[in-house]
Amino acid sequence: GSDFFYSGADGNQGSPSLQHNMGATVFVQPLDLVKNRMQLSGQGSRAREYKTSLHAVVSILRNEGIRGIYTGLSAGLLRQATYTTTRLGIYTVLFEKMTKADGTPPNFFMKAMIGMTAGATGAFVGTPAEVALIRMTSDGRLPADQRRGYTNVFNALFRITKEEGVTTLWRGCIPTMARAVVVNAAQLASYSQSKQALMETGYFSDNIFLHFCASMISGLVTTAASMPVDIAKTRIQNMRMIDGKPEYKNGLDVLLKVVRNEGFFSLWKGFTPYYARLGPHTVLTFIFLEQMNKFYRIYFLDS
């Protein structure tokens, strides 16, 4: 899901609960799977395995069945449990520390910094589940003799530790944390900027329609900004050793190889399923936040 945290004007968190996030994971798992397959599609060449996201869905259903589209669900649930719990905890603690004695919440800049710190820390803690998720969702595209065949997330974590060493669980943690920071910054900045620009056209007033349009733009900008970091993360976490050497040195090496071998726009492979995940979450979060702030102003400030 989205990596951003919000607080109402009274300092209460507007972010969804862990149960909400884990419930949402059941619905977004197929989107995650398609995004990961698209990002790994045509690796090292311009010949793509899947032409479009729809082609990927049809191929997966045809070759792996309805269960195939839910591969890696246990890893998706564990990622939410570790990632969401950590970032909620960190955000709440930092938010309370930055709130002044008279109850004044932190300013816009501080909220952004707290959100980015919490997102990056949560991403670090959630990386082992993320590695398991990437590997499990990508397994079905490989020939039968090359598949890793993890039975569930705990089997994946145990085998990765045993076969490749415990540090492999944190493979790609730098781009995973970078993505969390990029999503936070892009979401926050693009939402306020879009809202301001739309208001200045004179066609919008400060209502739900404005919040919806601004958050749709924000979701689009955030998706575009974070996808190159996301593809670097996906490729690193899925890579194998070739002649005893890792396939990629680091995230920058992934980006350079993708651009050189697959073309510049391949950095945005899987855009549709990624936006289908991030877009609605961004819209609902901002609308929820705006309504909370509105009711707070009406019932507390004006009373």
From TrEMBL:
Q: Which UniProt keywords apply?
A: Antiport, Lipid transport, Membrane, Repeat, Transmembrane, Transmembrane helix, Transport
Q: Which GO terms describe its cellular component?
A: membrane
Give the GO biological process terms: lipid transport
- PROSITE patterns assigned to the protein according to its UniProt record, in alphabetical order: SOLCAR
The catalytic activity, as recorded, is: succinate(in) + 2-oxoglutarate(out) = succinate(out) + 2-oxoglutarate(in); (S)-malate(in) + 2-oxoglutarate(out) = (S)-malate(out) + 2-oxoglutarate(in); malonate(in) + 2-oxoglutarate(out) = malonate(out) + 2-oxoglutarate(in); oxaloacetate(in) + 2-oxoglutarate(out) = oxaloacetate(out) + 2-oxoglutarate(in)
Q: Which InterPro entries match?
A: MCP_dom_sf (IPR023395), MCP_transmembrane (IPR018108), Mito_Metabolite_Transporter (IPR050391)
Topology of the protein relative to the lipid bilayer: Multi-pass membrane protein
Pfam families reported in the protein's UniProt record: Mito_carr
Q: Which GO terms describe its molecular function?
A: alpha-ketoglutarate transmembrane transporter activity; antiporter activity
Placement of Solcar repeats on the sequence = 2-97, 106-197, 206-295
Source organism superkingdom: Eukaryota
Q: Does the keyword Zinc-finger apply?
A: no
Q: Where in the cell is it found?
A: Membrane
Q: What is its main location?
A: membrane
Q: Where is the signal peptide?
A: none
Job of this protein: Catalyzes the transport of 2-oxoglutarate (alpha-oxoglutarate) across the inner mitochondrial membrane in an electroneutral exchange for malate. Can also exchange 2-oxoglutarate for other dicarboxylic acids such as malonate, succinate, maleate and oxaloacetate, although with lower affinity. Contributes to several metabolic processes, including the malate-aspartate shuttle, the oxoglutarate/isocitrate shuttle, in gluconeogenesis from lactate, and in nitrogen metabolism. Maintains mitochondrial fusion and fission events, and the organization and morphology of cristae.
Q: How does it assemble?
A: Interacts with SMIM26.
Task: Return the similarity comment.
Answer: Belongs to the mitochondrial carrier (TC 2.A.29) family.
Name assigned to this protein: Mitochondrial 2-oxoglutarate/malate carrier protein
Organism, by scientific name, is Pygocentrus nattereri
